[in-house]
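Example record

The entry below shows one chain as it appears in the dataset: sequence first, then structure tokens.
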Amino acid sequence: MYSRLNQAQPYALALFRIVVGLLFACHGAASIFGVLGGAMGGGSIPAGTWPGWYAAVIQLVGGGLVALGLGTRVAALVSSGSMAYAYFSVHQSGALFPLQNGGEPSAVYSWVFLLLVFTGPGALALDRLFTARSAPLPAEERTPEPAAPVAV
């Protein structure tokens, strides 16, 4: 049973990455464009407003990149930091625990994206299209080059 689960792990990780990235991007799109219910119950955040608008841009772009699996580790690191900043600057002052201060989404997103920094994108990532062509072959797969004759 564990061998089948291990074989499915890259695909489960890819599905996890895609769903989380899409949800995060939708949150950014709602804040920037006022779609999907808008920011804070309706409307959009005025452009250039600190920190909300910049956080929404990170959510939209970072979520899209994570969902596509393009620059996943860097996008996830920036997204994780953005959510950690949101938690400590906005929510932490309200109460000690995320359940009490309304910071559960920020805390969860921060840890989820930090996990993706370490696990990578899994299968079905656009990163694999670029790294597969440019990455050198492992030592086991290389054909040995003939040694040059040595003059004595």
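Notes for this example: Residues 25 and 64 are 6 Å apart (CA to CA). The chain has a mean pLDDT of 86.
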